């Protein structure tokens, strides 16, 4: 391991995560060097459907970056998967920045920025083996092998040595295309020049051996096509799992099977792949408008994101998607791992498929994800020989397993840091000087539009509706005299069974009448204020009677009576 001599100048390095530690997704790492902030990745996390209350996904608390946006010198997006890139538009809307990413992800980011009308940022395409000057410092982008073409790792040069993020990688020594081929020589060169801190992902840190060749889909999908040359095959892949999609396509080409790309997003993705040099024989592609259910040798490739993918398949199986009629001799191949948040949707889909009599092959049960296993992680450590090691990305048990394998290789436990989100590791003169929690981070739920519920009010309302129900109280009063001329009418949903508790609705109606009359008599009547008084009194009454706090919606309609 090389020694790192302290520099005479006191350079301060701060490393912290705004997401990704002890969780699946929402990845964001920050390297701050003498005040300049380098952001690595900006991903989302899919919530647990039982707790999501309609939320689509969750992003990081970026308040620190917003507060110091003038110091953000660059954002590095290593590839185009949801857990790495999909929070980027929300970051750029608040912190316009220079973004550095691979060619295919650049197209994806530019499209999303246009859709969300995000302006003011600059998207730079990074080629493999590129070296750039960013924020006045040398940044090296080195090629690695992952499930997305052009994926890279990042090395930022400081006076104390390189700070390296490994990227999501595997070691695969087969003859891969340039879009997927890693470089051991680039890693070895960084190790020779001196690595100060290595941040390395942990998702496979408890998996023995190397990931390759157990990540490959081709052997299993080939067997299905060989044995079922006159049956229709439906294949599920995640839209952003380009390596997996290309495996399916190449296998279809090998067996001369016709293909149909199910969604417009897939068709657009194929155009983007064509732009970076990947083409599919036109004669093997069936356009959706030319599809008929009589075709028997066709492979329908269904690619979407997250839990939506399994909902779509469920609808196809239930014959709810035109033009498909799902037959009992059809085969469904699951080539997409079941991501956190999709378990219940997958279970429902599987149940409905067996009702229809179809056959399902879960190919992912034979494969492992394209993340480094123990020997891959050890190889990176061996080549880079960092002074400090920080496991990132994954649940705590995986972060711990990653730290343990470094200790097994002889690394000093004092130089291995497991950080929580918001915890800052500070380095000066070649050594760690502090490691304290500095930020109290709050997740930001996204429900279609981030600005709809920044304070969580909508989520709280959904929680109340799901547990304690709702009660609506409506009354009509004379706009001039404020006398009740219509109602009150009381409606409840999810609170009580009215036949057994009619007295409650009568009491609630009486509370409404009395409150309006009292406010009018005391000359304190105001439509909004009086509704708040009604809500407070009804809340106390219902809590005493039912032990519940339903959502209470008083409505006072002021009617202009005719003379």
TrEMBL record:
The keyword Coiled coil does not apply. Residues 25-199 form the Metallo-beta-lactamase domain. The keyword DNA repair does not apply. Keywords: Exonuclease, Hydrolase, Nuclease, RNA-binding. PANTHER family: RIBONUCLEASE J. This is Ribonuclease J. SMART domains: Lactamase_B (SM00849). The lineage of its organism: Bacteria, Bacillati, Bacillota, Erysipelotrichia, Erysipelotrichales.
